[in-house]
Fold this sequence. Notes:
Blueprint: E1 2-7, E2 10-13, E3 18-26, E4 28-39, E5 46-52, E6 57-59, E7 67-72, E8 77-82, E9 91-104, E10 107-114, E11 118-123
Parallel strand pairs: 2-11
Antiparallel strand pairs: 1-3, 3-8, 4-5, 4-9, 5-6, 7-8, 9-10, 9-11
Amino acid sequence: QVRLVESGGGLVQAGGSLRLSCAASGSIVSINNMGWYRQAPGKQRDMVATITSGGGTNYADSVKGRFTISRDNAKNTVYLQMNSLKPEDTAVYYCSAEGALTYDRGTYFHNDYWGQGTQVTVSS
């Protein structure tokens, strides 16, 4: 099993910045992709940014140029630096670990995991 713990959410004024962190723990061998998704009230969960174990990144068009995803493989931690925040960025932000390989009592497991989410609110 992998546990993902997010931190860094909060309330910020439009134009401000926040940095989200997500630390993965457990009997982790490797994680293919890590990422951030968000879900606003009444809307579906959408991809914000993802990063591969090799550092390749992908961003939603709405956040390109404002958000930066990064990753520390040694710490199994992913970050999301959010600048120039807009009210429409308000949502619950979820961390994901895709293709996580874990080892437990002689057996390897391969699964995807989600964090519990952290609220980001941007006031106008």
